[in-house]
Specification:
Elements (H helix, E strand, L loop, with lengths): L1 E2 L4 E8 L7 E7 L2 E14 L2 E8 L4 E7 L4 E8 L3
Antiparallel strand pairs: 1-7, 2-3, 2-7, 3-4, 4-5, 5-6, 6-7
Length: 81
């Protein structure tokens, strides 16, 4: 897989259970709202919470919540040719 672009700021709605940003539910990218169909993987890095997600349209994104800035960014992922 290769990144299609640099991480872009975005607006994310998320499920927050035991802590904020437990799981992304939807996000806006390029002025279009995407519903998260599946969280394929999630992991923590210092000060960040990462999610590899698949949307209803079968697009894949890496979404990152930056705890210190209280902001989100995402990168669209493309399958390698």
């Amino acid at each position: 897989m290769s990144n299609a672009s640099c991480p872009q700021p975005t607006y994310v709605t998320c499920y927050s259970g035991r802590s904020y940003a437990d799981r992304p539910a939807s996000f806006v990218w390029r002025d279009k709202k995407y519903e998260v169909k599946e969280v394929e993987r999630e992991w923590l890095e210092p000060g960040e919470r990462h999610f590899l997600v698949r949307t209803e349209g079968e697009k894949r994104f890496e979404i990152c919540y930056h705890e210190r800035e209280d902001s989100w960014s995402l990168t669209e992922l493309k399958e390698a040719s």
